[in-house]
Write a structure and sequence with these properties.
The complex is a heterodimer of chains A (289) and B (270). Helices cover 36% and strands 23% of the residues of chain A. With 289 residues, chain A is α/β, with parallel strands linked by helices. Chain A has two domains: 204 residues, 3-Layer(aba) Sandwich (Rossmann fold), CATH 3.40.50; 75 residues, no CATH class. In chain A, α5 packs across α6. Chain B has one domain: MetI-like (MetI-like fold), CATH 1.10.3720.10. The radius of gyration of chain B is 27 Å and the shape is extended. Classes of the chains: A alpha/beta (289), B mainly alpha (270). Chains A and B meet through α2, β7, α4 and α6 of A and α9 and α10 of B.
Chain lengths: 289, 270
Amino acid sequence: MTAVSVKNLSKTFGKTNKALKGVSLELEESEMVALIGASGSGKSTLIRHIAGLIPGDNSQSRIDVFGSPIQTNGKISKGVRNDRREIGVVFQQFNLVGRLSVLTNVLMGVLGRASSFRTLLGIFTRAEKKLAMDALNRVGIASHAAQRSSNLSGGQQQRAAIARTIVQGAKLILADEPIASLDPASSRKVMDNLERINREDGVTVLVSLHQVDYAIKYCPRTIAMRQGEVVFDGPSDQLTPQFLQQLYGSESVELLAKEDQRELVPENTGPEPAEQETEGRRAFAYAAG
Amino acid sequence: MTLASGHQTTPSPIAPPKNLKRSGLNILGWAVLAGLLAWSWEGADMRPMALIDDAANMGQFAAGFFPPDFTEWKMYVDEIFVTIQIAIWGTVLAIVLSIPFGIMSSENIVPWWICQPTRRLMDAARAINEIVFAMLFVVAVGLGPFAGVLALWIHTTGVLAKLFSEAVEAIDPRPVEGIRATGANALHEIIYGVIPQVLPLWISYSLYRFESNVRSATVLGIVGAGGIGMLLWEYIRGFYYAETAAVIILIIVSVSLLDMLSQRLRKLVT
């Protein structure tokens, strides 16, 4: 079954800022796919479209997830809230509520399914709490459940965010630069967790990265973007430095940077195609510096 | 070689030339201020000489306040408690209303056609002083503390809703998006994503408003809306200056104590 289907998606920010130009792609169920590209190539924008968080341009396009329409011709579907339950999103900045406990943050995964009235009062059942603790245990941070999530390290917060998608029972995980703000050891733990969920639960994973070495190590298939277009879609082992140089020219330096060379990554001086990416770049510069 | 001679070898940088436009504007600004003060002199009936001419009068008047007469202190304290109780109810009722109204006047949460009318309504509640509301409510519900509670309630709702919405508009939108992405509904987003972020500020604003409501409540009595103000007004009108002095001292002491207490509490939450 097709997990994700994107057809002819375009997105323009402002009047002329083309972040996505006629993107089409399909993901099969239980695939683990990397989405690579330099800062500003449209990766985040694409992921936010698939999650139904922003609408595309008003042109012939559609996005379906597990056969159910997320948006059609630049209009987000009415029932998108139901579809979002199936989609777990992991963000670069974790997007946890810092003042709430890790457990509460993970329990939020049930909000889409449980009775509204009960959850609005902040009441969770014993079964839901068990589900959340099991998820925290799986990602290896069960002992931090009672802490405020802002007291955790970046890597631990990101694993809490992954635990939230487990509690959610998501069949598709969209991970938007999940390791861009993390140190190498935390990055590996986060990627290991995503890989395990993909392998053990058959969850489809689309993970955007800007380092090719992670894509090659964790994902059999890679989709490469450049300036809002898909420029490559195929087996990750084809991504040799020569091929990347051919695809990206001088931008390939950023993609090939190894973990310990991040500070050498040159700042992208071109115009910013997507405003969403600015945030990511700042955080990235912060992590690198 | 000394440091001083080291400095002399390099010529000191030249100070930037005076910006004529800036200094011109500066002079103009002072001239406008002077003009405003002169224009207001007559209207405000400024008679500084009166302070000197009537010095003897004022000395006599001030002497009337001493020594303060605390014989009725039990009654004063009771009335101060009533004043604080008016402030407590007025503030708490206002907080309850300010939560929905504050969220409804936040641009980042609701569409403009909810936000703008709510804001105008809050503007109206805020624009009118508590004393004016108190006079109206005294007519509507009769003399006494309840009129004071209602007056504080309305005015404080206008103030707190604005402060609450400013806190909401300054939140980090990313956690809220994280919750939205799980399939949660809009109310979930507010309860789990917005309120935890603004709660410390909301508590701090509410305590601050409680402090100022205690101060406001001390004068509500003047228009008949209960509390120590009623007593104060009676004493001033009847030229009982020794008693007036005692009441004023008690007000100062209790307001300062409450301010200190609430300041402590505010430090705890932020």
